[in-house]
Every structure is written in C-alpha cells, then in structure tokens.
Specification:
six-stranded mixed β-sheet; Leucine Aminopeptidase, subunit E, domain 1; 237 residues; binds adenosine-5'-diphosphate
C-alpha cells in the first residue's frame, strides 16, 4: 500500500484503556467541557482555577494566546516571575507553573506554561512518521509525541498543585501550525487517558478546552464524536 493510501486512523498509540461506552470512559468524558471563548475571560460558572499558556520555550511572552495571557495577568509580573523561577525557560513538551497575578481576581490561581512543538510542515519525505507527516498514524510523528507531552505534563503539574479545573487552549495550532483535527485528537486522547487512569476524586476534577472560535470548537466536538474510530486500539505496527 502506498504511503498516501494508508489509513491514518487505524492504529492509535494513545494511553487509553477500555472501550467506547464503558463506565470508565463515560466517567472520563463527563469531566471534559468544550467551550468557545477567550481563555483569560471564561465564564465563572466553569470554575476554572488553572489556565494553560501555549508559551514559547524562552517563556518571554509572544503573540496569540501567550500575548493575551501575559496582558491579562500583567506582563511585568509574569516575566519577572518566570525569569527568576524558570531561568532556563521551558523546553518543548515540558510545563512550568507560575502564579496568575492579576488573573487571580477572576478566580485563576495558576498558569501552566507549556511550549508546544512547531509543526515542521515537511511532507512527502517518503519516511512514514517523518516530522510534519500529516498522513502518518496518530502518535507517530515527533510533533505528536511532543504535543502529547504538553498535555500529560500539564496534567501532572496540575495534580501536584491541587488544581480543580484546568483550561487548555489548542496548543500549537496557531502560529506553530499544527493541523487542528490532529491536535484535537491528541489533546482529547491524552486527557481522557489521564482521567481514566485517575478516577474521581483525583485532581484535576475537570478539563475545559477553551476554543477561540466556533469552528475550532467544532473540531473538538467532531473528535469527541468520532473517538470510537480513532482512539481505541493500541498500535499493532
Ligand atoms: P501556538 O504558537 O502554540 O500555535 P497560538 O497562540 O498562536 O499558539 O495559537 C494557539 C491556539 O490558541 C490557536 O488555536 C488560537 O486560535 C488560540 N487562541 C489565541 N488567542 C486565544 C485566547 N485568548 N484564548 C483562547 N485561545 C486563543
């Protein structure tokens, strides 16, 4: 079979146990919300106490969601904190915590800064799973692994900090160019896997995917609705 004809949805090496419709899956799904909004100004009803910043590896602030979070929290405070506590920045795939500064007035206690991978955009290299190969099976590119690490490291840090509700933006899908449907599947697969392995009352209780547009939220909803096709079954490769 040619590389282009390979079904990228067959073998998904995501850490998800169980099968669609099991109690564990339903319980994990009930801990996820997809909302449309600015992550710095989400509805108080969502009870978000921790937000994730799609930062750069230097933690110096930037455009997009990073710029919005710096502006809302107070860029001077955030930069000074990160310079002092994380002088080496945040290597891609890892996560670092800071206080929320001015965002505390909106109930946010922690900001988790994670540096997502830049989608390389290399295609048709002839090497399955080469960086940037969007036809590769999910989980098989270096960028997939690094993006998955962003989610799992943020969730581990949130657990250590005692976060109740964590809001994630669509990490890497803006300036960093990660294909949105692929990124949504990685985000959902790893959050569900985390919840299945850590049933309530373990923290965080819930995750909110804060989408910046209706179209972005539709990508998450579609990924959730089609999860039975792409999420279950470990790699047989
Ligand atoms: P990256 O460099 O990781 O790609 P970007 O900030 O460019 O980060 O984009 C990541 C995602 O965040 C994009 O889907 C973008 O639409 C979204 N985004 C931008 N600003 C906000 C915001 N204030 N709240 C929530 N999501 C946002």
């Amino acid at each position: 079979m040619s590389r282009g004809a390979r079904d990228a949805s067959q073998d998904v090496p995501l850490p998800v146990a169980g099968s669609p419709g099991t109690n564990a899956t339903d319980a994990a799904l009930s801990r996820i919300d997809v909302v449309v909004g600015d992550i710095t100004d989400l509805s108080a009803e969502l009870d978000v106490d921790t937000i994730v910043n799609a930062a750069n590896a230097q933690l110096v602030g930037g455009a997009g969601v990073d710029g919005a979070i710096h502006a809302a929290a107070g860029a001077d405070d955030l930069l000074a904190h990160n310079r002092q506590h994380h002088p080496d920045g945040c290597p891609t795939g890892l996560a670092k915590a800071s206080p929320a500064f001015a965002l505390e007035a909106r109930g946010i206690k922690h900001i988790l800064h994670t540096a997502g991978p830049v989608w390389s955009g290399q295609r048709d290299t002839g090497v399955p799973g080469a960086p940037g190969d969007d036809t590769a099976k999910l989980g098989y590119t270096l960028e997939d692994t690094l993006l998955a690490a962003c989610y799992t490291n943020c969730l581990k840090l949130a657990q250590q900090l005692g976060s109740g509700v964590v809001a994630f933006p669509a990490i890497s899908t803006g300036v960093y160019g990660f294909p949105k449907p692929r990124a949504a599947r990685i985000a959902i697969g790893h959050v569900l896997g985390h919840f299945q392995q850590r049933p309530a009352p373990e923290l965080p209780r819930r995750v909110v995917f804060a989408c910046f547009s209706d179209a972005d939220a539709d990508v998450y909803r579609e990924a959730l609705a089609s999860r039975g096709q792409w999420m279950f079954g470990r790699s047989r490769a």
